[in-house]
Amino acid sequence: MLSHFINIQYCYTYLIDQTPVSLLLYSHIPTAILALFFGIFIFLKNRSQQGFALLMICISFALWCLFDLSSWFSFIGSGNTMLAWSLLDLISLIMFFFSYYFLYTFITEKDFPIWQWFVGFILILPTAVWTLLGKNLPNYDSNNCQAIENTKITGYLFYILGLFIIISSVFSIYQYMKNKENFEKRKKILLVGSGIILFLIFFFSALLAVNLLANSDSSGYVYNYEIYGLFGMPILLIFLGYLVIKFKAFNVKLISAQALIFALITLIGSQFLFITSTVNFILNGVTFIGVVIFGIFLIESVKKEVRQKEYLEKLTIELNDSKMRLEDTNIKLESANDKLQSLDKLKTEFLSLASHQLRSPLTAITGYTSMLLDGSFGKMDDKQKEAIDRVYQSSRHLSTTVEDLLNVTKIEQGGMQYVMADFDFEKAAQDLAKDLSVTAEKKGLKLTFKTDKKSPYTVKGDMEKIRQVILNFIDNSIKYTKKGSIHVLISKDEDKKKIRLSITDTGMGMTPEIKAKLFQKFSRAEGAKMNAGGSGLGLYLAKKIIEEGHHGAVGVDSDGTDLGSTFWMELDEATN
Questions:
Q1: How many Å apart are CA 54 and CA 300, to the nearest integer?
Q2: Cα–Cα dist 157/86, whole Å
Q3: DSSP string, 393-419
Q4: Measured distance CA(52)–CA(104) in Å, rounded
Q5: Taking the CA atoms of the chain, what radius of gyration do you get in angstroms?
Q6: What is the fold of 2-232?
């Protein structure tokens, strides 16, 4: 045992002579601490499969660094140095397995299928058994300070490590190609895949180089290659740090990413405390400056983007909430609209039914009262005659209202029929003006009829319905004019082929607000004060008949209250 201890100590002195202590410490201790800090930090922030896998990578890497240093310094005792050396292969294999596991869970956001756990266990089991039985390092060559490796077991190890690199590469490429339409997802796959694969390749290449050259080079310098394989870990952490900052990977916020950059700077800066070589001092200084510049640039450049992302996420949430509220409102409005349409349909049907039912008795009342007034049933005294005349006038007014209701119902149900034919518009208007002049004279009003002498005034339309509109216009002017005159004018625009009827009175006039709603259904405005018996349907029907039935136009002009009004309609001139 003593001779073995002396041999180990001799090899320690021999190997240290070949490799600077500062380089060993720089390559192992800061990298291992940084990896542990990163892995634990991420796992505490995100205890998912990804966080667990990353933690296992970092722990196995730190253990590898610890046991590898023990093979250089023998600080865990000479009796345990060979055991630590033999465990390096198993730890490497575990680290490679969890690297692939991390890659799989990060990209797919799912755990391994059972069969992949089983395959991984089967691949690792032989190395674990050989290590525990001491078969992988059966002896130690104290003269050359090298462990005697079982080449078959070592060959199996490198095959499995290489297999994990190939599987990780193929899986990353496949997932990258699979997510063609998701640019952000592809970028994440590229970053995490590149980081993991570079880390594995660095580590694998260093181990392979040492293994291939150890048999042909007994100088000890060959073990320096193993040191450079450890620098794959900082590369991986840089890629993962960028994922954390840029894409909030592992649900880590920007402030956490700042902490990671700060930890990286602190750990690298701490190397200045024990560096003695000028070359290593310069190397560490360049690395330190590079990390500081990289960290500042990365955080500052991403801060704005992170704020914008959070703002956009907030807007998206608010937009989605508004959209949901709008959808609920639309559903309610659609439901209310359906109910209103149903009620409107019921109302229309009721008006149609009621109008039809009222029409017959009103016709009878009007007919019999007319016969009474004519003396068909004998003479009546003046008092009786006055009463019957009131009944007669009321029944006529009610008949007109019922007729208007029927016409409104027909229009709204699309059942209004128009008998279109050419007729003399001048004659129709003149006859109505003549008939109504008697009514105007009873009120002390003067009603005149004129044309612009550009006859003929022939239009194509339903003469009865157009007469109804003319009658309504003239009758309204008589009703709402207390004194003065009413002028009916027919004119023609020969360029536009339009014929226009204007009824101008000296009546009550109207404001712009009243004009805006005058042709609406049941709208009577201020006119109700002068004529309480109106239905508010006449002008609505006039607009529908002229505009929808004859593709013409109706309107009213007035300079204001008590300044009179001009109701007009415009129709196309009939063409031969």
A1: 26
A2: 12
A3: HHHHHHHHHHHHHHHHHHHHTT-----
A4: 13
A5: 51
A6: Rhopdopsin 7-helix transmembrane proteins (1.20.1070)
pLDDT in tens, 438-459: 889 988 999 999 999 888 999 9
Give the type of residue at 407.
N
Identify the helix (H) or strand (E) that includes residue 390. helix 382-412
Chain segment 303-341, per-residue pLDDT in tens:
666 667 767 777 777 777 777 777 777 888 888 777 777
Tokens at 383, concatenated: 């008092």
Considering only CA atoms, which of 86, 97, 1 is closest in space to residue 57?
97
Nearest to 344 by CA among 441, 409, 422: 409
Q: Which two tokens stand for residue 80?
A: 């345990």
Q: Which token pair is 490?
A: 């027919």
SS (H, E, C) 485-512: EEEEEEEEECCCCEEEEEEEECCCECCH
Domain 336-412, CATH: 1.10.287.130
Separation of alpha carbons 50 and 98, rounded Å = 10
- Residues contacting residue 99 through CB under 8 Å, at least 6 positions apart: 57, 164, 168, 196, 199, 200
Q: Is 444 helix (H, G, I), strand (E, B) or coil?
A: coil
- Cβ atoms of 137 and 82 closer than 8 Å: yes
Closest CA to 557 of 568, 544, 548, 549: 568
Considering the segment(s) 421-572 as one domain, its CATH architecture is: 2-Layer Sandwich (3.30)
Q: What distance in Å separates the CA atoms of residue 236 and residue 264, rounded to the nearest whole number?
A: 13
Are 53 and 105 within 8 A, CB to CB?
A: yes
pTM for the whole structure: 0.49
On whether the CB atoms of residues 451 and 457 are closer than 8 A, the answer is yes
Q: HSE (CB half, 13 Å, CA atoms) of 81?
A: 24
What residue spans define the domains of the chain? Answer: 2-232, 336-412, 421-572
Q: What residues does 81 pair with on adjacent strands?
A: none
Return the pLDDT at 254.
Answer: 52
> How far does CA 113 lie from the centroid of its chain?
34
Residues 6+ apart with CB under 8 A from 93: 123, 124, 127, 157, 160, 161
CA pair distance 511, 501, nearest whole angstrom: 22
